[in-house]
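My current task is to audit a protein record that another person submitted. Alongside the sequence sits a line of tokens, each denoting a local backbone shape. Where you disagree with what is written, explain briefly why. This is what I was given:
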Amino acid sequence: MVQLPNGAKVALSSIFGAVKELTALSNANPAVASCVGHGFTDGKIILLESGWEELEGRAARVDDAAADNFELEGIDTSDLIRFPTSLGLGTAKEVTTWVAIDQIIGTAFAGGEQQYWGFSPLDSRRTKQIPTERSAQTATLTLADDDKKPWFAALDQADRLGDTRVLRITLPNGAILLYSGTVSFNKVPTLTKNEGMAVTMTLSINADITRYTA
């Protein structure tokens, strides 16, 4: 069913909790992380660092949390080729504070296009191609300029620190989209006659999006 994004709520992680060491990460669907005394509870959003490239810098939601382990909801690591046994160890930290980003008057997503290697066999009349990788991807939000908004200072800080942040978009139907990457904030406002002044934030997306239906 086609959905409209009208009414979507956007927030950026501003504070993380303590970094927790993962002592094991299973090959399962969903993956189970072992972490002594992690303190995470169901529904919390965490940012991962992992020896598995596909989980490096990726955001996920905690599920079925117990004292010393928890599930990474929606994360399937059962493929032993993509996720070699015992090589996924790393860390996790919880997003403890979010800052709402409102007054969004424009959005733009760029990149993510499939790249190819082309070759032409001697006996072929047609050039062939093999998929290689995808191009770098960014998400840009244009915001009505207002330096009194909480997000203004939060975006400025994120730009200066250059650390990995989580951007959460909650759709009207309850679905959640999690993007992670580094923030760039252009706080110099536009000055176009008869148009509202605007600033822009850009998220360099450095990991797979994580999506939850509700």
Observations:
- The mean pLDDT is 96.
- The longest strand covers residues 90-101.
- Residues 179 and 209 are 5 Å apart (CA to CA).
- The domain at 100-212 is CATH 2.40.30 (Elongation Factor Tu (Ef-tu); domain 3).
